[in-house]
Amino acid sequence: MNSFWKNKNVLITGVTGFIGGNLAKNILNFDGNIFGIIRNENPNSYLFHEGINKKIRLINGDLSDQNFLLNTITEQQIDIIFHLAAQVEVGVGLINPFLTFETNVRGTYNLMEACRIAKKSGQNIESIVVASSDKAYGEYPIDKMPYRETYPLLPKYPYDTSKACADMICNSYSIEEYGLPIIITRFANIYGPGQMNFSAIVPDSIRSALGYSIFEPRSDGSMVRDFIFSNDVCELYMLIAQELSNNPEKLSGQIFNAGSNDPIDMKSLIIKIYNKLENSKDLKVVLNKMEGKKTKGEIQHQHMSFDKVYEYFDWKPKNSIDEGIEKSVKWYRKILNK
Fold first, then answer.
1. 278-310: pLDDT as tens digits
2. Which residue among the candidates 46, 159, 173, 332 is catalytic per the annotation?
3. Which domain holds residue 66?
4. Is the pLDDT of residue 239 over 90?
5. pLDDT category of residue 1 using cuts at 50, 70 and 90
6. Are the CB atoms for 255 and 183 separated by under 8 Å?
7. Active site includes 159?
8. Are strands 33-38 and 9-13 parallel, antiparallel or unpaired?
9. Rg of the chain's alpha carbons, rounded to an integer?
10. In a 3-state reduction of DSSP, which class is residue 127?
11. CATH number of the structural domain spanning residue 148
12. Do residues 102 and 64 make contact, with C-beta atoms less than 8 angstroms apart?
């Protein structure tokens, strides 16, 4: 992988997100040139915490501006694109569906159209990797789990619908008429160092168990989810982009799911984190608050399989949930202590 990334011009949308920052850091280790699109600087992001921002080229702009995207892709002679930018909050989607659709749908077709025009003008874009979500599938019964790439998309809520729409738009740009080399990825819940969105359950639980906040559960903990560690995701993104570049005829238009193949209910996850930090006192309070608590706009049972990516690329996650939590706790101890 080392020689492939050397001097590649890589564009990352959503570079200030925690996966964007982790991915930039990983590609820099292989001497790639990173260009990140930002609307504004976020000093609390992983990108700035780790000083990665000083090693890449940040370009101020917005996904709603198609000309800006086209100019960025052509002027910087971009080889590889990771489209990670999105409004990712399920709750925000319920409160403000318009914002969610504008960001996730309009932002995606603007980027795809800019890529189409750039390719038509002669630029060689080798790979476009699009970050979708397991929620694009909508809700299936437990006996249909894990999600399979062949399942029809049945979204119900605004966030889920926005990701499903974006996926179909990307697929339409991978057809023969346009020939863009696109792969859509639908991963389980990603966690790990750099996740500063404390509405997510792993960082929220760790921060609270460390005594920096009070955990407020949103449900009774019965919902089942799948989790995948951030560095595993970054390695898979890079592998997919490289393989797509080497074999676009075979891989363009493909969809790949990835998870741990080991789902867990939210109550068990919270218990695992609080026990890891030896905080039984606060755990009892949290469990009492969870009793009988219901939530809206959330799918009850979701988990993913990495069977297809293993078949195609011989990939599987390296970090178990226990290993990932241990690494996450170590990072949050350091960062929250500051």
1. 999 999 999 999 998 887 767 888 889 899 999
2. 159
3. 2-196+228-260+302-319
4. yes
5. low
6. yes
7. yes
8. parallel
9. 20
10. strand
11. 3.40.50.720
12. yes
